[in-house]
Specification:
Layout: E1 20-21, E2 24-25, E3 28-29, E4 32-33, E5 37-38, E6 42-43, E7 58-62, E8 66-70, E9 84-85, E10 88-91, E11 98-99, E12 110-114, E13 122-125, E14 128-129, E15 160-167, E16 174-175, E17 197-205, E18 208-209, E19 235-240, H1 258-261, E20 263-266, E21 270-275, E22 279-282, E23 296-303, E24 310-313, E25 320-323, E26 331-340, E27 343-344, E28 348-349, E29 354-355, E30 364-371, E31 376-381, E32 393-400, E33 407-412, E34 418-421, E35 429-438, E36 441-442, E37 446-447, E38 452-453, E39 457-464, E40 470-477, E41 499-505
Antiparallel strand pairs: 1-6, 2-5, 3-4, 7-8, 8-12, 9-14, 10-11, 10-13, 15-16, 15-17, 17-18, 19-21, 20-21, 22-25, 23-24, 23-26, 26-27, 26-28, 26-29, 30-31, 31-34, 32-33, 32-35, 35-36, 35-37, 35-38, 39-40, 40-41
């Protein structure tokens, strides 16, 4: 949420109401970023609510063109001090409520209402406002084109709608139509190309205009759940999408090419992402159809170690097909046979053998082994899963702390589990990450949690002792000394000051 925060408190905004969040905090010093501390799950919502209803307004004094009304204050302010009352009036024959105190700054429970017409019958009401939204009922929206009827009609039938629009950057909302809308759909015209607009809608009944409802995107509950998969498992996600004009649908994941990793199907109202052990093949229709149109294709497969083909499907009308149920790490051949009313034609086989595999999992346990003024030595372990294809190597990348520009610094063999990166800048801080490579591509990166500061020269040596034990001498030179210092250690003779930590090892 924030890259830097020097206090122990932080205000986090732009959260979605009634949505559950997790937060975590990391400490940062000049050596890098520490391990995060994570909070418990919490729901974003107000700690207070709407105030209770005020008393029914009563007429104290009335004349030809004014009336003074009074009401009782609410029993509860909802946990937040009242800001003001919003007094409204309407004529008996009208359905529209009109604000009386347009400035809104009214905290007294009496008000003189001017500008009335002699002989008319009026009704008054006084909703109130605190820091919580001022109305009790909120129309619910659904993600679809057009307008949607409110769930709560306020005790009377909905007579119509009011649609307002606001140009991006402007403060004023303008009515997008002249007459009250009777249907739950409207095409807004007269808009300027290249500009952004916001829209909101409110329902109308005999009691007045309800709360405005703004459009939003609602994600299905099934897509909010965390999905856990075993290494090499299958994943299928189906998402319904509606909108007008028809929205553009894309799938993406940082650092991963999903089009190569899985199968993506995009339609006008839905999209599907499938990542499993499958292969999608495509072909061209035969140039010669044998005198009758080709109306079907037969798909077959065989393992590389077998001679006989097995039928995958005998009914396929398209020129592409997705073959499921393949074994990871196995080698296959596929072939397609065209068919018309006269029979089955000659097969067309894949020219190359097909290996069913995915990109590997990231390497494990990336750690720093040694650091000097210009070099860093890293060590790691191989991934838990190679994706079904033999690993071909590793790639190490580095970036300076505080930037996001990653540079490839080494390409290594599969037998390498340790590497020294040279020609680094002294006293600079670096972040490192490593990827595993197979025939399908690169894995996700395994990244070090903390930055490494160059310039720390660390020496460990064991000094034998006459007592049968020994002394482990630790010294750090050329930079800031990590760890606890020995207060009794002084500067070394004829050289720079250094710190020493002596540990007695017992047999």
């Amino acid at each position: 949420m924030q890259a830097e925060c020097k206090e122990t408190t932080c205000d986090i905004t732009r959260l979605f109401k009634n949505t559950e969040y997790l937060f975590r905090v990391r400490g940062v010093n000049k050596y890098g970023t520490g391990v995060p501390l994570q909070s418990e799950a919490m729901v974003a919502r107000n700690t207070f609510t709407v105030p209770s209803l005020p008393g029914t307004p009563e007429i104290l004094v009335s004349a030809e063109d004014f009336a003074t009304i009074e009401w009782l204050k609410p029993e509860s302010d909802g946990g937040s001090p009242l800001l003001h009352y919003l007094v409204e009036r309407r004529e008996r024959k009208s359905a529209r409520w009109v604000k009386v105190n347009r400035d809104g700054a009214h905290l007294d429970s009496t008000l003189k209402v001017c500008g009335l017409t002699e002989g008319n019958v009026y009704q008054f009401r006084a909703p109130l406002l605190n820091l919580y939204p001022p109305y009790h009922r909120h129309p619910r929206r659904q993600h679809q084109s057009g307008l949607v009827s409110p769930v709560d009609d306020g005790g009377a039938d909905v007579m119509g709608y009011i649609l307002e629009m606001q140009e991006a950057g402007a403060e004023e909302w303008k009515k997008a139509h002249e007459k009250t809308l009777r249907s739950a759909e409207l095409t807004v015209t007269g808009l300027s190309a290249g500009k952004k607009y916001c829209f909101r809608v409110a329902g109308i009944n005999v009691n007045g205009t309800g709360d405005f409802s703004e459009p939003y995107f609602e994600l299905h509950d099934d897509l909010k759940k965390t999905i856990c998969l075993r290494a090499g498992g299958s994943l299928r996600l189906f998402v319904s999408v509606t909108g007008r004009p028809v929205p553009t649908i894309t799938w993406s994941k940082p650092g991963v090419d999903l089009h190569n990793r899985g199968f993506i199907d995009i339609g006008s109202t839905s999209t599907t992402l499938i990542i499993d052990r499958s292969a999608t093949i495509s072909w061209e229709a035969p140039a010669v159809d044998g005198g009758a149109p080709v109306n079907n294709f037969i798909i077959e497969r065989r393992e590389a170690s077998m001679r006989a083909y097995k039928t995958v499907t005998s009914k396929c009308s398209k020129t592409s097909y997705k073959i499921d149920g393949l074994m990871e790490g196995m080698l296959y051949y596929f072939r397609v046979l065209p068919e018309n009313i006269y029979g089955i034609g000659e097969p067309c086989e894949t020219p190359d053998i097909v290996l069913v595999c995915e990109v590997p999992l990231p390497p494990q346990k990336l750690e720093m082994i040694d650091v000097t003024k210009s070099t860093v030595t890293l060590g790691w372990e191989k991934p838990e899963h190679d994706g079904g294809s033999r690993l071909t190597g590793y790639v190490i990348e580095a970036c300076k702390f505080g930037t996001d520009k990653w540079m490839k610094v080494a390409t290594l063999k599969t037998t390498d589990f340790e590497h020294t990166i040279e020609k680094l800048n002294e006293k600079e801080q670096y972040l490192f990450r490593i990827k595993a490579i197979n025939s399908r591509g690169a894995s996700e990166a395994k990244e070090m949690l903390t930055a490494i500061t160059l310039g720390n020269n660390v020496t460990l040596c064991f000094l034998p002792s006459a007592a049968g034990g020994g002394l482990l001498q630790y010294s750090s030179e050329g930079g800031e000394r990590p760890g606890r210092k020995d207060p009794g250690a002084g500067p070394a003779s004829g050289g720079p000051a250094s710190s020493r930590l002596l540990l007695v090892l017992q047999r």
